[in-house]
Each structure stands twice: as C-alpha cells, then as structure tokens.
From TrEMBL:
It comes from Cellulomonas dongxiuzhuiae. It is found in: Cytoplasm. PROSITE patterns: RADICAL_SAM (PS51918). SUPFAM superfamilies: Radical SAM enzymes (SSF102114). This is Heme chaperone HemW. The gene is hemW. NCBIfam families: hemN_rel. Keywords: 4Fe-4S, Chaperone, Cytoplasm, Heme, Iron, Iron-sulfur, Metal-binding, S-adenosyl-L-methionine.
Length: 412
C-alpha cells in the first residue's frame, strides 16, 4: 500500500495554473517525469504507487497505458500554454515506477516521442529509464538508445541473495554485470541503485554489494537507507518481530563505508545519497528537483511543480484513466509553495547537494547558526567563510549523516 496523497487545495478540473506560475520561467529548466505504475511483483518494503501488471484492465491496463499517458501530455501542453508559460524544450526526461521496462519497448519509445512532439527535447537532453535487471534484453536496450534514451538506472539493491530475499527482490544478482555491459554496449550511461540497512544485512554483506557494483565499472551509484513505511508487508513483519531493523549506528557505518569505497573508486558525492564519476554522470533530472526547477509529472500519483505551484495526480490508474477520458485533469490536489514553506524547502533541498546552499538563501534569523554548525563539524568551514567563492553551506560527511539536524538549525 502506498502512502496517502498530501493534503492540499482542490485542483481545478481543467488543471489551470495561476498566472504567477509563468514568472521567471525562462530561468528554470523544464523536465518531464513519466510514472509507469506496473511491477511483475510487489516487493514487501515498497510503498510506491505500483500495481502488478495483470491486476488492472481497460484504460488503466499495461497495454493501454502509453496511450493514456499521452493524453495527459496533451492536457499538459494546453495548461502550460494557457498559463502563459514560454515554450521550453524538455531538458530531462525520467521514466520511473514501478518497473518501466515492463512496458514494451515500442511503448517506451512512444512516450518519449510524445514528449518530443509536444515540447521538443533540448540539445543534449538527458533521458533516463529505471529498470530491473530481469526486465531488459540487449536488443531492447539498444532500441531504447536508438530512440533517444541516454541513461538507464538499474534497481540492483544488493548483491547478496539473502538480503534480496528479505527485500522480496526476484532478480538474480549474477545478472547485474551482464545488464550493465549490455547497456553500456548500447551507448547508455548506467546507474546502479543500492539499499542499505535491510534486516539481517551485515556490514560485510553491504561491503560486498558496493564492491560488486563498482566492479561493473558504472559511473553512477545511488545508495539509500531502507525506510520501512507503514502499510507495507515489511512493516507488518517488523511489528510482529519477524524482522529486526538495524540501529542508527549500523546505518551510519554503512553510509560511511559506501562513501569510502565509492570515493576510493573515483566517484564523488554530489547529493547525500548519490555519487558520480564526473559532473556529466550525475542525474540532471534529480538535480532539477533539488534546485527547484519545473517539471510535469505524468501518470497516476505523479507529482508536478511549475513556478511555485505543486500538484499531485489521483493515485489509482483507473481513476487516472477515467479523468483523462472525460477531458479532465487527473490532478487530485495542489498547493502554492511560497513564504516560509518555500524558504524551508530551499534550505532542505539545497543543503543536500555538494554545491551547497548560498548563505543568502538561509533565513536571516538563522544565519548565525552556521557558525555553530561549522564548530560541530557539520558544515564545511572554508565554504561557509567564502574561501573559494561566494559563502555557502556545504555539508561535511558528518553533516550528511545529520542533514535533518542541519536543516532544523537553519529554519527554526
């Protein structure tokens, strides 16, 4: 079960945006997120808005999904034009899920062609799809690359069979090096996603996973701490005492180990949970989220943000398809991000990236707290003093482990 949608104001039936959304748009990049809500099986830890590929029918089915999503793109184009947004080619596309590569390759290509025909793609646009290692073939990856995809992010999660079983992941870890090679042979950049802190995972298990990922030669790795959300099967297992979650010290030790191994292999952190070999290897789409750019989220449960207006679509694919079929926006609710909320989000997102947060973006009332954060070893002293340029709040490694505490100090 995925989490409930946020509370917010009702969204207008036609999805219309206020005129304020167009202000400053020329200075913001525009991205598109495409949510594919289908998985072969639903993993016990996952709280994403996903459905098994065979449980839905009609316009919500896997077979009809690309056509339904293209309908939202047409609506999005009308909404943006009516609100006075300038024509902006899409800088990044991210196809997430779920398991997007459960869709036929032709449907993924149709979705990208829909983005291209609706808005155009900027020169050098980044186009990513997520994939499970057991959901791709060499031919399929080559066809995606030929159609304009530039990047694939594989959900590896772990190299250790007993950890994968606890996560209820179905792929064979021995397949990961093969799919990485296939993708690179097709000319795609490759990222591997890892999860640490699974119940029963030892520090040596985690070391093995990171080392196996690095042995493939990938140039991007994401490493996320497992968070067990209410309503998932794993949450029930924890509540019953069938699984025991690791403590914070275990999580911290695994983060530090990953950082040591990834940095030693030539990858540098550019966001708290992401490492890349070069700036070109970083996920530009995700950087757009952290930097407050505009994006339109297509699909059930997808979130969007344009010019300080944030909204979210209805979650269930049937409700999503029904609204579009009736000519209505699939948006379930929205909010204006302004004032204190905007300031909080700017700090919360800005401090997570290696470039840091300009000191001028920290509320004046809390700027004196920066000196204490430097003294506590949470913020880099040279960056805070402006030794190499404008003064910025840049997290140390200890600060990355305690990023939430840093944010609280800068906004309370």
């Amino acid at each position: 079960m995925s989490p409930a949608l946020p509370e917010g104001d009702p969204a207008p039936p036609d999805g219309a945006l206020p005129a304020s959304a167009a202000r400053g748009a020329d200075a913001r990049a525009f991205g598109v997120y495409l949510h594919v809500p289908f998985c072969a099986v639903r993993c016990g830890y996952c709280d994403f808005n996903t459905y098994t590929a065979t449980e839905l029918g009609g316009g919500a089915s896997l077979a009809a999904y690309a056509t339904t999503a293209l309908g939202e793109m047409a609506l999005a184009d009308r909404v943006l034009r009516t609100a006075g947004l300038p024509a902006r080619p899409v800088a990044t596309v991210f196809v997430g899920g779920g398991t997007p590569t459960l869709l036929p390759v032709d449907d993924l290509v149709r979705l990208l062609d829909g983005v291209r025909s609706t808005w155009g793609l900027a020169p050098g646009a980044e186009v990513t799809t997520e994939a499970n290692p057991d959901s791709v073939t060499p031919d399929g990856l080559a066809r995606l690359a030929a159609a304009g995809f530039t990047r694939v992010s594989f959900g590896m999660q772990s190299a250790v069979p007993h950890v994968l079983r606890t996560l209820e992941r179905t792929h064979d870890p021995a397949r990961v090096p093969d799919v990485v090679r296939w993708a690179r042979d097709a000319g795609l950049r490759v990222s591997l996603d890892l999860i640490y802190g699974t119940p029963g995972e030892s520090l040596d298990d985690w070391r093995r996973s990171v080392e196996v990922a690095l042995a493939t030669g990938v140039d991007h790795v994401s490493a996320y701490a497992l968070v067990v959300e209410a309503g998932t099967r794993m949450a029930v297992q924890v509540r019953r005492g069938e699984l025991t979650l690791p403590d914070e010290d275990d999580q911290a030790a695994k983060y530090e180990l990953a950082d040591d191994l990834l940095t030693g292999a030539g990858l540098r952190w550019y966001e708290v949970s992401n490492w890349a070999r070069t700036p070109d290897d970083a996920s530009r789409h995700n950087l757009g989220y952290w930097r407050g750019d505009d994006w339109w989220g297509v699909g059930p449960g997808a979130h969007s943000h344009v010019g300080g207006v944030r909204w979210w679509n209805v979650k269930h694919p049937r409700a999503y398809a029904d609204r579009l079929a009736r000519g209505l926006s699939p948006a379930a609710g929205r909010e204006l991000v302004a004032g204190d909320t905007a300031a909080l989000e700017r700090v919360m997102l800005g401090v997570r990236i290696a470039d840091g947060l300009p000191l001028q973006d920290v509320p004046a009332a809390t700027r004196p707290a920066v000196a204490g954060l430097v003294a506590d070893g949470l913020v880099d002293a040279r960056a805070a003093l402006g030794a190499d340029g404008p003064r910025r709040v840049v997290l140390t490694r200890r600060g990355r482990l305690l990023a939430d505490a840093v944010v609280r100090a800068l906004v309370v």
